[in-house]
Amino acid sequence: MFNRIFALAGKEVRHIFRDSRTLAVIFVMPVFMVLIYGYALNMDVRNISIAVIDYDATPQSRSLIRSFEGSGYFTVTAYPESRKSAEELLMSHEARCVMIIPSGFAEDKASHTAPSVQILVDGSDPTYGNTAVNYSSAIVFDHSLSQAGGLAAMPFEIRERFFFNPELRGSDFIIPGVVAVILMMVCALLTSITIAREKETGTMDILLVSPVRPLEIIVGKVIPYIVLALIEAAFILAFSRLVFEVPVRGSLILLFGLTFAYIYCALGMGLLISSVAATQQVAMMMALVATILPSMILSGFVFSIFSMPAPIRMLSYAVPARHYIAIIRGVLLKSATFGALADETGILILLGTVFLTVATLKFKTRKGE
Fold first, then answer.
1. Residues 107-158: pLDDT tens digits?
2. What is the C-alpha to C-alpha distance for residues 65 and 69, in angstroms, rounded to an integer?
3. Which of 57, 65, 135, 261 is most exposed by smallest CB count within 10 Å?
4. Is 156 left (phi over 0), alpha (psi -120 to 50) or beta?
5. pTM over 0.85
6. Cβ atoms within 10 A of the Cβ of 162, count?
């Protein structure tokens, strides 16, 4: 009996080591997960992009700016000339907060009057916004101590104002990200198993020898999921509005138009996965690793992208959810226009085109075999 058991076990071991997909699950996927979680899940927010309006333009005000630059937590990205220009930077994500140093800042310090500094913060991400305010307060306090020369520190008055989400409601931040993850799940995960199912049932061979062109097969597979995803998006937004009172400050027509670009990209990714995978099980596993997990971790849904290492930030540009979350938060919370979201939309269309092109070429290869 033991000989038979060991013989069967040895046979199974040989099968495992001959199956590259099983080895990938055992060794490659854990390495991938450890790297992603180890580098991406960083709760220490750094390199916050800040714009500075210095109405005082004195050595004292420039010293305060240098304190922010040297802290490692802020990176000065712009020096707008007006408050309106600063608010446009917040709208376009070019800056996550703005520091306004009023005129008379140096005079207040010289006369031992508490100088004031105003901080404008993008409140569409409450955690990020609160962190920026807390860091600003700490830096200003340290700067005050260093300027006091060992004497009692001159207190600073910090006036913070949160834009786009003044109440810092967590639901206004979380729910747009949930919409992005659900749409990715519906589009990429479901379409990833469609062609794999055809392969398993044997109907794919019939399609490949038929006069139907590969592009026609792909379009026919995609159309039902486009309609389903749009209905799903409308349902989620309506439910979120009714239950959580998520604001809709921008154009719904614009939002659904840009949502179509996201769906196009997600479906292209799902079809690419489906064209590569041999079985439904493998397709589903690949889709989970390639879509759902990056959408949760590398999109800015929960964790700040700007606190991640540079290579991970670069990798996040290939995650469609990153760009769609910027779109949906921009429209719902900031009333953003197409011009402010054109870059994100263009990247989604580019990624979707690449995915669909590779998937179509894969079909052509199979049809020629």
1. 877 777 777 888 988 887 777 778 888 888 888 888 777 765 544 455 666 7
2. 6
3. 57
4. beta
5. no
6. 20
Taking each helix axis from N to C end, the angle separating 320-334 and 170-184, rounded to the nearest 10 degrees, works out to 140
What percent of the chain is predicted at pLDDT more than 70?
A: 78
Say which DSSP state 156 is in: P
Nearest to 110 by CA among 58, 71, 74: 58
- The single-letter code of the amino acid at 283 is A
For residue 346, give both structure tokens.
């263009």
Helix (H, G, I), strand (E, B) or coil at 158: strand
- Alpha-carbon distance of 110 to 112, in angstroms, equals 5
191 token code pair: 């379409």
The CA–CA distances, whole Å, from 32 to 36, 172, 185 equal 6, 31, 20
Token couple for 303 = 């964790």
Phi, psi of 278 (to 5 degrees): -90, -30
Give Cα 277 to chain centroid, integer Å.
Answer: 26
303 neighbors 182 (Cβ within 8 angstroms): no
